[in-house]
Each structure stands twice: as C-alpha cells, then as structure tokens.
Amino acid sequence: MADPELEAIRQRRMQELMAQRGMGNPQNSEQQKAQEDAKSDAEERRQMMLSQILSSEARERLARIALVKPEKARGVEDVILRAAQMGQIVEKVSEERLISMLEQINNQTTKQTKVTIQRRRSVLDDDD
C-alpha cells in the first residue's frame, strides 16, 4: 500500500474511534464534563455527610473495608445515610456500632453454597 492510502485509512479509523468515544462532538464532551462534575459534587456531599455521622475510628474502619471490598463499604454507607435521613441515628456512629451493623449486614447477605459432585464413569470401568 502506498503511504497516502495508509494515511487515509488511519484518518478514517481515528475519526471512527473519536466518534465512538464522543470526542468528535464538542457538545457531547461538555455534557460529559457536566455529568462528571455532578457526580463529583454528589460524592463530595456524601463524604461530608458521612464525616458528620461517623466517628473518626468508624471512618477509618470503613475506609479499610473499602480498600478490600468497595461494594460492601458502599452498601454500608448507604445504610448509614438512610438511617440518618430517617432520624434513626441521633449521635455519631462509633466503631463498635459500625461493627455491629456490619455483622447484621453479613448475616442478612450470607449466601448459601451448595456443592454437588457428579461422578462420571470411566471407560475402563466394567460393572459386568
């Protein structure tokens, strides 16, 4: 292939990739930026609310849990925020209370595993 043909193919491919990612349309990138800003603002408000509700030890424990199991930490945060919005939490949540909440959530979400073993007969086994 000649260099101009190769360059034309590359240009078309780049345009396709940019269109898929939404980079070709400046309005779309502005919308994405606005969505990202809204998400970051919401996350910031969420963290501020949690810092008001949780004691420093409880926040540290929740941060350690988030390192290992982010989805579990997010669920616990949701439960705490919902309880605070309903007025069930009137004082800061201590580490001991957080531990008890975690144990309750673990008991509720424990999955039962069942193992079944199916043995296959070997071709060489003879039952005759």
UniProtKB/TrEMBL annotation:
UniProt xrefs under InterPro entries: PDCD5-like, PDCD5-like_sf
Domain of life: Eukaryota
Residue span of region Disordered: 1-45
GO cellular component: cytosol; nucleus
Molecular-function annotations in GO: DNA binding
Pfam families linked: dsDNA_bind
Segments of skewed composition (Basic and acidic residues): 33-45
Family according to the record: Belongs to the PDCD5 family.
Protein name, as recorded: DNA-binding protein DDB_G0278111-like
Source organism of this protein record: Populus deltoides
